[in-house]
Every structure is written in C-alpha cells, then in structure tokens.
C-alpha cells in the first residue's frame, strides 16, 4: 500500500513527481494514437488470446500504473470500435476530437457530481441549456438536461409528455388508476428507441402507432390525422407525436412545421427525435431543412454524433420547463435545498431527470462548442452532406451499384446489384463484413423496402472524399 511522507496509506500517488511523468507519457500515447489514426485499419477484430486476457481473475492486490497502462496499450487501444477513424461510416457515430478528450480529462480531475448543489459545473451545464434554447429558438422558460444519449432523452420526453397530460399526481397514482389509454404516434422510419421509450415508461409499445411514410421516408400527415381520429373515436387518448429530424436509416426530416400544426390542432405533445439531424440548425445551409423544429414541445439530440463531442453526450430540451420539472422533481430531507451554502442554486439537474449522481458531461460539450464555435461545427455538418452528394453521384455512375434511397442529408444507402433478391442480400452483407474485417472501411447495413442495403453515414468529421472513393473502389472490386 502506497504511503504518504507521514506514513499514512493513501490512494493518491506516493510521489506526484513520478505520477506527473507517467501521466504525461499516457497523454502522449493517446495523442499519438489520435494523430496517426488514419495509418491504421478502420477496425481490427480482437484475437482470441487478447480476448482471453479479460478473463484474468479479480485483482485483489496492487498493480503498478506502468503495468496497467502497458496492458491498456496492448489489449484495449488497438481494438477500439474505430469510430474515430476517417473511414468509419457505420451506423451514425461521431468521431470525437482531441479537445473534447482533454475536457474529459479535466472533468475527471475535478470529479464534480452534477446532480445539483451550487458549484461551477452546474453553471457550465446551465450555459449549455441557455445556448441550446437560443440556437433552437426556444423561450427563456425552456429547460434542458444532458443525458447519456437520445435513447434516454426520448424516454424522458415520453415521461414528461405523459405527466403533463395526466398531471403530476399520476407519479404517485400510477397508470392503472387513470382508466385511459394514452396513444403516441411516430413514423415507421422512427428509431427503435421510441418504441422502447413507450415500453420503459410503462405506456406499452402497443400504444405507439407507426404511421406510414412517403417515398422520402417522411411521415404521411393524412395517415397521422386519420389515425388520431380513429383512436379518439374508439375512446382512447392521443397525447404525443414524435417527429424525426434525420431518420436513422436515410436521414429524412419530417414535415416538422405541418406536424407542429397537427399536434396543436389535436392537443398532442410534439416531440422531435433530432438525434443527429437537429444540430443542423448550426449550419445556415442546413437550418432551412429543419423549419418547424422551433415549434416542438421538446427535442432530443446527441452532441456525440454530428456535434463530435466524445461519447456520451445526449441532450433533452423542453419548452415547458415547469412540465419538465413536474415530471421528476422531488426533495427528500437529505437533499434539502437552501438559500445559501452548497445546497443553494435551485433548481438542480436531478429535478429534470431520473439521475441523482451525474458526471460533468457539460465540460466536453462546452469545450467543443467554444473551441470550434457553432459556425465551424455547422460547416463540418454541411461538409458531410456535400460528401454524401459526391458519394451518391459516384454510386449512380457505377453500373454494378444501385442507389436504394434518396439522400436528404449525410447518409447514402446503396448496394451491389444482383438478379436474385436473396443472393443480393447475402452478397452485400458479406461485402460489408469483409470490408470491416480487412480494416479497409466500416460501413454498416440496414433494410430499405425489404432490401439489404450498404449504409454509409458520414458523421465523423475526419472522413474525406478519398476515403469514400476508396470505400466504393473496394465494394466495386467485390461485385460479381
Ligand atoms: C442514434 C439515434 C438514436 C439513439 O441515440 P443514442 O444516443 O444512441 O441513444 C435515436 N434516434 C436517432 C434518429 C438516432 O440516429
């Protein structure tokens, strides 16, 4: 057990000089890694002997930091998921930045608990909320909170909408006492976490209507209106419509303004899943596509996707701050608030979500927004959309490839043509797996109109045109 100069055991380094030297080495190691990302494969599978190293027994004794760090470099560093790599275009993932990384280090050094109380980390998160209000055109009374990701933000939005509809007393009484069926609406293009939010909130996914979409994957408004009328006629209680600002499969943006009007006419809470697309308001080029977003009752989004903040950094913005607070706030004796001292500074962030202990996510968001500025982040997003257009044109020019969906933002879905539908699915799935395993690039797959598609989502700021051309070259070379 390390001991201090006075002989007492400690968890701090016995020598801060030696620690500082080691800490600098560790920092150099990870900065080197980020600097040279492009030289390595986009992903490499973990060999069995490396994986089995994680079966090592519980470490009851001490291990010197030098050895633990050496293990990190040998067992963990080379086998990341690759989302920071320029040729990682799978799913919808951001690449992070070295500035965000440093903010994480500083946040961990401070180690504040951002559930509440009166300290600087709270003010940083409040500033993020104020900036988001401003950027999304929300009123001063709007509230917000950082969460893990959009899955969680969507869940919180469903809970806020439900509590608003039923009144705060429902928190105690529970759904069984309400004697009504609350119905929510979203489109068939919605992310699966909207369905899960209905499940986790106890409302039940059977009470989520999946409204069909048009050819551009946008919710069909007539079908929505008809579904609401039908549910009303059957005695149910429509309460929520979830619009999309950037669908997960192709990046489609619903007719948000029309959805807002429809929600208002039908007395529904209008929530927008804007996981990546909503941050397009940062770009003057993209913002017009999001018209109507400023009319939402709530917006869920991820800073860790198009915002390039290191994982995890989701966010929920709620127009009616009182409704937001009424859904979660509570004040047990051991969390009593005060006018002065460390217990001051109401409301606390724990009043706006289920978490009490919360990390300092706000610092990496703050560093990212400040060091780059909103304009530069917006320009980076617009550039990913331009690259998607370049990729779309290249796909269209290749006789062996077919485009499977429109390209409204930064996602391109296509595949290698094959006469036999089943073989086409297998061929394209195999191509994606081979690209991943060879480390050439990481696209992922989805299904468009039942067809397996190679899906290239350009979210990562490091992706450039030659990366995409190399990806298509590799795919075309595998075409039969
Ligand atoms: C990524 C995504 C989600 C889920 O967000 P997480 O941060 O992964 O929880 C939800 N909706 C859409 C449209 C997404 O792209």
TrEMBL record:
Keywords, in A-Z order: Decarboxylase, Lyase, Pyridoxal phosphate
UniProt cross-references to InterPro entries, sorted A to Z? Aromatic_deC, PyrdxlP-dep_de-COase, PyrdxlP-dep_Trfase, PyrdxlP-dep_Trfase_major, PyrdxlP-dep_Trfase_small, Pyridoxal-P_BS
Sequence similarity: Belongs to the group II decarboxylase family.
Q: Which GO terms describe its molecular function?
A: carboxy-lyase activity; pyridoxal phosphate binding
> Has the keyword Disulfide bond been applied to this entry?
no
Top-level division of the source organism's lineage: Bacteria
Question: What name has this protein been given in UniProt?
Answer: Aromatic-L-amino-acid decarboxylase
List N6-(pyridoxal phosphate)lysine occurrences by residue.
Answer: 305
Q: Which cofactor does it need?
A: pyridoxal 5'-phosphate
Under the heading Gene3D superfamilies, the entry gives:
Aspartate Aminotransferase, domain 1, dopa decarboxylase, N-terminal domain, Type I PLP-dependent aspartate aminotransferase-like (Major domain)
Q: Name one Pfam family in it.
A: Pyridoxal_deC
Question: Which segments does the entry list as coiled coil?
Answer: none
Its GO biological process terms?
amino acid metabolic process; carboxylic acid metabolic process
Q: Does the keyword Lyase apply?
A: yes
């Amino acid at each position: 057990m390390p001991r201090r100069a006075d002989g007492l055991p400690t968890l701090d380094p016995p020598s801060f000089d030696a620690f500082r030297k080691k800490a600098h080495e560790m920092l150099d190691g990870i900065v080197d890694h980020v600097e040279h990302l492009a030289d390595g494969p986009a992903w490499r599978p973990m060999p069995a002997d490396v994986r089995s190293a994680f079966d090592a027994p519980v470490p009851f004794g001490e291990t010197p930091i030098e050895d633990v760090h050496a293990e990190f470099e040998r067992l963990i560093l080379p086998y990341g998921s690759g989302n920071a790599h320029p040729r990682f275009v799978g799913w919808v993932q951001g690449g992070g930045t070295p500035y965000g990384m440093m903010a994480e280090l500083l946040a961990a050094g401070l180690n504040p608990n951002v559930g509440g109380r009166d300290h600087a980390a709270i003010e940083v998160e409040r500033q993020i909320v104020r900036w988001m209000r401003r950027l999304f055109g929300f009123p001063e009374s709007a509230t917000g909170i950082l969460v893990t990701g959009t899955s969680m933000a969507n869940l919180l939005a469903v809970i806020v909408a439900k509590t608003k509809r039923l009144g705060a007393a429902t928190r105690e009484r529970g759904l069984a006492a309400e004697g009504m069926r609350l119905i929510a609406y979203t489109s068939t293009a919605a992310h699966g976490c909207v369905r899960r939010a209905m499940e986790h909130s106890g409302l039940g996914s059977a009470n989520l209507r999946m409204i069909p979409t048009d050819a551009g994957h946008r919710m069909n408004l007539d079908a929505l209106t008809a579904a609401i009328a039908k549910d009303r006629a059957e005695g149910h209680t429509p309460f929520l419509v979830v619009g999309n600002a950037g669908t997960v499969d192709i990046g489609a943006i619903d007719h948000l303004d029309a959805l807002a009007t429809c929600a208002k006419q039908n007395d529904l809470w209008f929530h927008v899943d804007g996981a990546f697309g909503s941050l397009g308001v940062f770009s003057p080029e993209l913002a017009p596509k999001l018209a109507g977003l400023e009319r939402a009752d709530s917006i869920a989004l991820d800073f860790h996707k198009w915002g390039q903040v290191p994982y995890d950094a989701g966010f929920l913005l709620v127009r009616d701050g009182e409704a937001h607070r009424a859904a979660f706030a509570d004040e047990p004796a051991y969390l009593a608030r005060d006018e002065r001292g460390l217990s001051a500074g109401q409301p606390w962030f724990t009043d706006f979500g289920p978490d009490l202990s919360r990390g300092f996510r706000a610092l990496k968001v703050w560093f990212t927004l400040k060091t780059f500025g909103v304009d530069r982040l917006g320009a980076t997003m617009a550039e990913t959309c331009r690259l998607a257009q370049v990729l779309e044109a290249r796909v269209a020019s290749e006789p062996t490839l077919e485009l499977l969906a429109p390209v409204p933002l930064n996602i391109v879905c296509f595949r290698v043509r094959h006469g036999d539908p089943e073989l086409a699915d297998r061929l394209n799935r195999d191509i994606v797996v081979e690209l991943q395993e060879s480390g050439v690039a990481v696209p992922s797959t989805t299904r468009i109109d039942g067809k397996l598609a190679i899906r290239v989502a350009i979210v990562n700021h490091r992706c450039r045109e030659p990366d995409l051309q190399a990806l298509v070259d590799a795919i075309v070379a595998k075409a039969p």
